[in-house]
C-alpha cells in the first residue's frame, strides 16, 4: 500500500467497500468532487477483501486507489489519517471502534435506499437520507453522541426521480428476494403469479436481488419459458406492473411515482413452517399511501408464536419498521385477488395527490446535484470546524503491535 504525502494539516481518507452492481462509481464520484475542494485520499476494499468483509469489493481498478486486501491493511492505513469517511451504515462497526480508539474522527454517509444498520455506531458525524433512517439509527445506536444531518443518500446524487406516465406495455416486473428465501412456498407462489400474468397475456420479468446466487436463477428459469432477468436501474419505466412478496425496493418505485403490489406479504415474512397458519389477506384493493397493516389473524398469530422469532427474523424486522411508522404507496393483496385486480386495470387507477407528495418528501429531502452539493458542503464544514485529537505515542505504538498480531492471524488462517 503506497500512501500519498499530504500538503494540509488535516489528513482525510475516504474508504469504500459496499459496492453493488451498476453502482460501482458512487463513492468514487463523490470522492472526485471532494478532491476538487479538499486534500483527500481514496481507498477501497479489493476483491480479496470480500473473504473477510462479506461485501462486494471493487472489480474495476483505478490508478489512484489505495487498495486494501484485509482489515490489517485497512487499519494500518487509518493510522496515518485524522478523518475517515465511510459510505455505509452496515458492516463498519469494528472500523468505527478502531478509529475512535486512535483518535481518528469518523464520518458516515448513507449510500443506498435500504435500512440495514450496524448496532452501536458511535461516529462523529452521520449523514442520513430521511427521518426514518434517523429513528432506526438511534434505535440501533442508543448511546450515539455525534452529530446527525438528514440530507440524502449517495445513490440519489446521480438521479432526478421523474414523474413519467405508466406505459400500457403488458409487462410486469417481479422483485425477487435473496436466495435464502427460495423455499418451496416461494417457488410455488412465483409459479402461481406467473400463471396469472400468462393468462392475462402479460409478460412477466424478474429483477434479481443484488446478493442472489446465479445458480439459483437457473433452477427457477427451468420452470418458466418467458422468464427474463431485467436490471431495475435501466428499465424502470418500461413496465406496467410492479410486484413482489415484500421488498424495500418499493421506496425506489414510490420515489419514481410508481405503486407497488405486495402479494401475500404476511405469509412471506412468516417462517416457512408457520405459513400455513396465516389466512389469505383480504384488504381493500385500491392503490394509496398507507401504513403497513397487520390483519387481526396475523396479530393473533404473532401473539401465539412471537417466541419463535429472533431479532434478525423477517417478522421482527417488519414489526420494528411498523413501529417506526413506515408507509408505502401501493396495495396489499392476497394471491387470490391478483387476477381480478390486474384484469380490471386497478394498478393504473391512482392519483398523485397532496398525501403522496408529503409521503414522498418523507422518503427523501434532496436528490440530484443539489443533494451532492449540500453533502459536500456539510462534510467540509465538519472537517474545518473539528479539532484533531492527537493520539498518545505509546498508545499508537501499542495498536501497531496489535495490528501485527492481527496480520499474523490472517496469514495463519489461510493455511
Number of helices: 17
CATH architecture call of the largest domain = 3-Layer(aba) Sandwich
- Structurally, the number of domains stands at 2
Q: Alpha-carbon distance between the termini? A: 23 Å
Q: What would you call the quaternary organization?
A: single chain
Strand line-up of the largest beta sheet: 3-2-1-4-5-6-7
Could you estimate the helical fraction of the residues in percent?
25-40%
Give the tally of β-strands: 14
What ranges have pLDDT less than 50 throughout 5 or more consecutive residues?
1-8
Query: Based on CA inertia axes, which overall geometry fits?
Result: elongated
In the CATH scheme, the class of the largest domain would be Alpha Beta
Overview of this protein structure:
By secondary structure, the chain is an alpha/beta fold. It has 2 domains: 12-159 and 367-413, 3-Layer(aba) Sandwich (Rossmann fold); 171-363, Rossmann fold (3-Layer(aba) Sandwich). The protein has helices at 26-35, 50-53, 71-78, 93-101, 131-140, 154-157, 184-199, 214-221, 232-235, 249-255, 265-269, 296-305, 314-323, 335-343, 354-363, 368-385, 393-413; strands at residues 12-16, 40-45, 66-68, 83-86, 105-109, 125-128, 147-150, 171-175, 203-207, 229-230, 241-244, 260-263, 288-291, 327-333. The strands form 2 sheets. It has a 7-stranded parallel sheet, sandwiched between helices. A 7-stranded mixed sheet has the order 10-9-8-11-12-14-13. The longest helix has 21 residues, at 393-413. It is elongated and about 70 Å long. Mean pLDDT is 81; it is low at 1-8.
Amino acid at each position: 500500500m503506497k500512501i500519498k504525502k499530504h500538503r494540509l494539516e488535516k489528513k482525510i481518507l475516504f474508504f469504500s467497500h459496499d459496492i453493488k452492481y451498476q453502482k460501482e462509481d458512487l463513492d468514487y464520484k463523490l470522492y472526485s468532487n471532494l478532491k476538487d475542494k479538499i486534500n483527500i485520499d481514496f481507498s477501497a476494499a479489493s476483491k480479496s477483501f470480500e473473504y473477510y468483509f462479506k461485501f462486494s469489493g471493487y472489480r474495476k481498478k483505478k490508478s489512484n486507489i489505495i487498495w486494501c486486501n484485509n482489515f490489517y491493511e485497512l487499519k494500518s492505513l487509518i493510522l496515518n489519517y485524522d478523518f475517515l469517511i465511510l459510505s455505509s451504515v452496515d458492516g463498519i462497526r469494528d472500523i468505527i471502534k478502531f478509529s475512535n480508539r486512535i483518535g481518528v474522527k469518523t464520518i458516515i454517509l448513507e449510500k443506498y435506499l435500504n435500512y440495514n444498520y450496524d448496532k452501536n455506531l458511535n461516529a462523529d458525524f452521520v449523514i442520513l437520507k430521511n427521518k426514518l433512517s434517523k429513528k432506526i439509527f438511534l434505535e440501533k445506536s442508543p448511546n450515539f453522541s455525534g452529530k446527525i444531518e438528514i440530507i440524502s443518500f449517495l445513490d440519489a446524487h446521480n438521479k432526478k426521480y421523474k414523474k413519467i406516465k405508466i406505459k400500457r406495455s403488458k409487462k410486469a416486473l417481479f422483485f425477487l428476494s435473496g436466495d435464502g428465501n427460495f423455499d418451496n412456498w416461494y417457488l410455488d407462489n412465483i409459479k402461481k403469479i406467473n400463471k396469472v400474468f400468462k393468462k392475462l397475456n402479460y409478460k412477466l420479468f424478474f429483477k434479481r436481488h443484488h446478493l442472489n446466487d446465479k445458480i439459483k436463477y437457473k433452477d427457477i428459469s427451468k420452470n418458466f419459458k418467458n422468464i427474463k432477468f431485467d436490471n431495475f436501474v435501466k428499465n424502470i419505466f418500461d413496465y406496467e406492473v410492479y410486484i413482489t412478496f415484500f421488498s424495500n425496493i418499493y421506496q425506489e418505485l414510490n420515489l419514481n411515482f410508481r405503486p407497488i403490489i405486495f402479494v401475500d406479504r404476511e405469509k412471506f415474512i412468516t417462517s416457512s413452517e408457520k405459513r400455513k397458519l396465516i389466512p389469505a389477506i383480504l384488504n381493500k384493493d385500491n392503490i394509496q399511501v398507507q401504513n403497513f397493516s397487520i390483519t387481526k389473524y396475523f396479530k393473533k398469530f404473532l401473539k401465539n408464536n412471537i417466541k419463535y422469532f429472533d431479532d434478525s427474523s423477517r417478522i421482527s424486522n417488519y414489526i420494528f419498521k411498523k413501529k417506526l411508522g413506515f408507509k408505502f404507496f401501493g396495495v396489499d393483496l392476497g394471491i387470490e385477488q391478483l387476477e381480478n385486480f390486474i384484469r380490471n386495470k386497478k394498478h393504473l387507477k391512482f392519483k398523485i395527490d397532496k398525501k403522496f407528495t408529503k409521503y414522498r418528501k418523507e422518503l427523501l429531502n434532496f436528490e440530484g446535484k443539489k443533494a451532492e452539493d449540500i453533502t459536500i458542503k456539510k462534510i467540509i464544514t465538519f472537517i474545518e470546524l473539528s479539532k484533531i485529537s492527537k493520539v498518545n505515542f505509546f498508545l499508537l505504538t501499542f495498536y501497531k503491535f496489535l495490528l501485527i498480531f492481527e496480520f499474523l492471524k490472517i496469514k495463519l488462517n489461510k493455511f
